[in-house]
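My current task is to audit a protein record that another person submitted. Alongside the sequence sits a line of tokens, each denoting a local backbone shape. Where you disagree with what is written, explain briefly why. This is what I was given:
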Amino acid sequence: MGARLSDYDYVLPRELIAQRPLERRQDSRMMVLHRAEQKIEHRQFREVTTFLQPGDLVVLNDTRVLAARRFSDDDAVEFLFLESLGPRRWKCMVTPGRKMRVGATAMIDDVCLRVEKITPDGERIVAFDKDFDVYASGSMPLPPYVNRPSDESDAARYQTVFAREPGAVAAPTAGLHFTSEILSEIPHTFVTLHVGPGTFLPVRSENIAEHRMHAERFSISPEAADKINNAQRIVAVGTTAMRVLETATRDTKLVSRQVEPQSGETDLFIYPPFTFRVVDALLTNFHLPRSTLLMLVSAFAGREFILRAYEEAVRKRYRFYSYGDCMLIL
């Protein structure tokens, strides 16, 4: 079953971590996992429509990534602004943390900020000395395994073509493969989950049941709920869409895929064993070792099958993580 953190480890050569996207979104490779037959196929993402059936509904996350990454004027401190807490006050992540203890100050665009508090998770509550738009000159918050500064191309490519609801600090990366043309060919709807800073945080407890997810804001519109409830098969695009859909049925005693329009926060942690009530198929990227996302896909497809697929992906030189290739689990 896999109750220990070490059960979700694998060896990945660093050169397989994609540092930039392919020139065209649809050119990614796609590993197809057939759960019933325990079979693996190697295809291209542009073939994804051939795996859809009549009555399928593809559900995507339409969150939009904020340009929330800023640097102090002396380039000594990196800030990732997470949430506005009122006039001139923000919650943020900082690197390196030792430079920004309570009372420490820094300048951004000649505006002074001061650390008021450090949260239990290490985030900083900061106050500016004047009104300040943190996004005005911000850049895309690329994940730490992308070993380069973000540039102008990331403003477009670290964003899905259907992004419309601002609020995320990381992209729902399974959606990065879609073009407007491919999307127009498939029956689909959108839910929203604003990917938060928890996506960057490691699991620290060997007993994975002790891990607690950060809460993230989500919503399901009446139109989306109606489409989901009338579909024969639900294909979730990304672990974020899956967590929204499975959250929507957690508070009901009915073993049903019926969802209601709603908004709120979810801290749902999906790991084996888990009973899926809504999602029948999942499109996802390849995930970090020992991560909650690897645990989620292991719950959906089986840990042994997933780790075998990852070993094959390494042998076949797939590109990993946010700008990498994808996996379709049927």
In short: The chain has a mean pLDDT of 95.
